[in-house]
Predict the structure.
Amino acid sequence: MEYRASLDTLSRMITAGTILLFIILGYGSVRSQDKNMVSNISLYSVIIIFLFLVIIIGSYLYSTEKYIVENGELVIKGPAKERRIRIADITEARLLESAETKMIRIFGVGGLFGYYGRYYSSSLGKITQYASQRRNKILLHTSDSESIIITPDDIGLLNLLQIAKPK
């Protein structure tokens, strides 16, 4: 079964705003060049534009698009990556309570094409998050003590994971 992971309104706004800001800053960097050097864009402008492109493209490539349950595995699918978790290795699958959602981003993205990466919560410890929205948060604990958060559009994925889990 396939479960979509669409962006919430805040993530869409952050994504659109960031892209727009980078376009304005990149354009401003090129426009600020000396009028006599119109044909020569400075190395500084090239580096800035390249950095903006790397941030946008990199963030998109590591975002989460959908979750697939197949062959006894949960597949977390993004444009450039795929994470497979054996359902048999999931020791707990439950909805995350609102009090548990307070997290600190260690190395991750907080809105640009989703919310993903490494986070820390005082109640849950280290967490790997593959989220596209701030609702429908499902917390998974694996047999190797990893905590993972996913956010499918359809919360029915939680029921499917609980049913598919071997007793």
